[in-house]
Amino acid sequence: MLNDPAFTAFRDEVRTFLAAHLPDDIQRGAARATSVFVDPAITLPWQRILHAKGWAAPDWPAEFGGPGWNEIERYIFAAECARAGAPNLAPMGLKMVAPVIMHYGSPEQRAHYLPRILSGEDYWCQGFSEPGAGSDLAALQLRAVPDGADYVLNGSKIWTTHAHFANRMFALVRTSNEGKPQAGISFLLLDMDAPGITVEPIRTLAGDHEFNQVFFDDVRVPQANRLGRENEGWSVAKHLLTFERGGKYAPGLIGRLERLRKQTEIDAVLRAQVDREAINLQALQALELKAMRGVGGSSALYASALKILGTETAQRIDALACEIAGHPAWADADGQAPDELAVVVPRYLNDRAASIYAGSNEIQRDLIARLLLG
Ligand SMILES: Cc1cc2nc3c(=O)[nH]c(=O)nc-3n(C[C@H](O)[C@H](O)[C@H](O)COP(=O)(O)OP(=O)(O)OC[C@H]3O[C@@H](n4cnc5c(N)ncnc54)[C@H](O)[C@@H]3O)c2cc1C
C-alpha cells in the first residue's frame, strides 16, 4: 500500500523537502537523544521549520491548520522523517491535548490554544499520575475546590515528563468524592507559572532529567480553563489516552534499524538479528496500517495491541544496538562509533520505561483480554 504509485510523488516531495530543510545540527541532536522525548532545544527549531511549511501537525484536520493529508500520506511522512533522522516532536501538545481540545473545547478554547500548540509557542506537559495513582488512575486525589470563578488546587503530580520545560499542563483533578472515583474527576488546562506550582526534578535510570514531581499549593486556576463539564473529565482522559497509545511505532523503528544495519557489516550473526527484527517490523507496520483503516478491531483494541508490540520491539532493538556498539570491531577502530551508537546504553536504560508509561503493558494486556474475552 505504501509503495502504491499514487503516493510516489508525495513521497518524493517529502524526501526532497527533508533533504533541503533538515539542518545537520538538528539531525545530529536527534541521533544523540537518549529518549523518545527529545529536548525542546532540538525539537522546537524543527517544529518551526515544519510549521512554516504547514507540516507541523500531520494528523490535524485542515480546518485547524493541518496539511489535510490522508492516513497513508501521514504514514509516509512519518516514515520519511524517521528515515531522514528528524527528531520526534513532543507529543503532549500536538498529539495528546490538541485532539481533545478540538473535540471537547469551546470555540474560545480552540481559538486560544490550538494556534499556540501548532507554532510551538506553548509547550505542554501531562499531569495525570500521582504518587498513589498510576495504573489505578481513577484513585487520583489532587483536589480542586471551587472558589468564586476559580478552582483552588492542592496536591501533587508525579512522573511529569518535561514539566521543567512546559508553560502549560493538562491535568486531571478531583472535583468530587461522590459516587464512583471516575465520576468526580475534571480535566483542567493550566499555566505552569501560576503562583504555588513547584517543579522538582526526578532522575531516570539513565541519569537524565526527563520527568518531575509537580507540587500544587493553593494554586488558582480559572474554572473557564476546564475542558468539558465538571466531574466528566474521565471521558476526556479516555479519549486522550487512545491518541497517546495508538500511533505509529514502525516508521521510527524501521528508520533506526536501517541506520543500525549499516553498522552490521562487521558480523553475520548481528546482521541476521537485524533481519529478524526487520521482519517483525514489517508485521508491526502491516498491523498499524490495518488499524489506520479501521479493519478488524476497535481503536481501543488496536491502541493497546500496538502499544505492547511497538514498545517491546523498541526494547529488543535497544538491546541489539548495545550488542552492535559493544562489538570488538568498534574498539579496534578507536571507538569511532557513529553518534547513534555512542548513546545506546543510556537509550537502552531510558527505554525500559516505554513498557510502563502511557499505561503499563500489563494493563494493556488486561484491556485486550477484557475487550476480546469480555
Ligand atoms: C518515563 C516515564 C514518563 C512518564 N510520563 C508521564 C507524564 O508525563 N505524565 C503522567 O501523568 N504520567 C507519566 N508517567 C507515569 C505512567 O503513566 C505510570 O508510571 C504508569 O501509569 C504506571 O503507574 P505506576 O508507575 O504508579 O505503577 P503502578 O500502577 O504502581 O504499577 C506497578 C506495577 O504493577 C503492575 N500492575 C498494576 N496494576 C495492575 C493490574 N491491575 N494488573 C496487572 N498488573 C498491574 C504494573 O503493570 C506495573 O508493572 C510516566 C512514566 C514513565 C516511566
Q: Give me the number of helical elements.
A: 14
In terms of quaternary structure, the protein is: single chain
CATH class of the largest domain: Mainly Alpha
What is the distance, rounded to the nearest whole angstrom, between the alpha carbons of the first and last residues? 33 Å
Q: Unreliable segments (pLDDT under 50, ≥5 consecutive)?
A: none
Strand content: 5-15%
| The CATH architecture of the largest domain | Up-down Bundle
Sheet having the most strands = 4 strands, mixed
Shape: globular
What name does CATH use for the topology of the largest domain?
Answer: Butyryl-CoA Dehydrogenase, subunit A, domain 3
Report on the architecture of this protein.
The relative contact order is 0.11. It is globular and about 65 Å long. The protein folds into 3 domains: 5-89, no CATH class; 123-231, Beta Barrel (Butyryl-CoA Dehydrogenase, subunit A, domain 2), CATH 2.40.110.10; 246-373, Butyryl-CoA Dehydrogenase, subunit A, domain 3. The strands form 2 sheets. It has a 4-stranded mixed sheet with strand order 1-4-5-8. The chain has a 4-stranded antiparallel sheet with strand order 2-3-7-6, with no helix packed on it. The longest helix is centred in the C-terminal third of the chain and has 27 residues, at 299-325. It has helices at 8-21, 24-31, 40-53, 71-84, 91-104, 107-119, 233-245, 250-261, 268-292, 299-325, 328-332, 339-342, 344-351, 361-373; strands spanning 124-127, 143-147, 150-158, 168-174, 185-191, 197-203, 209-222, 226-227. The mean pLDDT is 92. By secondary structure, the protein is an alpha+beta fold. The structure holds flavin-adenine dinucleotide.
